[in-house]
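Need a sequence for this fold. Nothing fancy.
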């Protein structure tokens, strides 16, 4: 018999990009990809890890890009927040099909479809074994969902922030464009800022640094990667 793997972290926040939900599509949601990601979350949840999630909205609407093409920035950012609500509901549906109780909490109140963000309620949901998905970013324009992820990780007293990306860690340049880009196994928060590495925006890195929340960057496209990272293995870059 093999010994079941033990999680290294008791409570985590998983940050997913909107692009990670597209699969092979150019836009929107790919149901098979969403279901596979739900399976990754389920695997960690079954270990007894308390999980909360922040999902981006770039697969539907990206505020910065829209602002550059004539929509006023604050309006564009609010539109992007609504896109994250759509993605959060999709992930919720996929998780609940797998028997995982889930709650979506939005920073922009919309009582007909989800709960408002209430910190103590969110913590209580996780203590009861529910996965909590935080939608609508911070609820404020000019802040990315990366910053929202760092903020919620701090508010929820998470042991780690896990960022699922298109590649298996942090590189010195985009490895899809620069074949000899260097991959880092570990970085300090200050190195990420000083080297201007584009893994998360500076506000998110500084928020994690000031509250001592490690950031683990891994490939969301690798099957089982989330469970591997949560148990202290797998291929990832640790920022601490």
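Here you go.
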């Amino acid at each position: 018999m093999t010994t079941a793997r033990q999680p290294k972290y008791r409570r985590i926040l998983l940050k997913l990009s909107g692009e990670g939900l597209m699969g092979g599509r150019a836009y929107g949601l790919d149901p098979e990809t969403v279901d596979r990601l739900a399976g990754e979350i389920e695997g960690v949840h079954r270990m007894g890890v308390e999980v909360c999630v922040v999902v981006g909205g770039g697969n539907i609407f990206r505020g910065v890009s829209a602002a550059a093409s004539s929509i006023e920035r604050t309006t564009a950012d609010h539109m992007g927040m609504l896109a994250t609500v759509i993605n959060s509901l999709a992930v919720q549906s996929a998780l609940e099909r797998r028997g995982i109780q889930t709650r979506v909490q939005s920073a922009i109140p919309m009582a007909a479809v989800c709960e408002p963000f209430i910190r103590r309620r969110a913590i209580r949901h996780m203590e009861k074994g529910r996965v909590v998905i935080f939608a609508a970013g911070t609820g404020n324009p000019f802040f990315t969902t990366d910053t929202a992820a760092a903020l919620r990780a701090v508010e929820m007293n998470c042991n780690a922030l896990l960022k699922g990306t298109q590649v298996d860690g942090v590189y010195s340049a985009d490895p899809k464009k620069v074949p000899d880009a260097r991959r880092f196994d570990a970085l300090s928060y200050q190195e990420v800022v000083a080297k201007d590495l584009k893994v998360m925006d500076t506000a998110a890195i500084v928020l994690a640094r000031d509250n001592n929340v490690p950031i683990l960057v891994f490939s969301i496209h690798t099957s089982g990667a989330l469970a591997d990272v949560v148990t202290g293995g797998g291929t990832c870059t640790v920022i601490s």
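For context: The radius of gyration is 17 Å.
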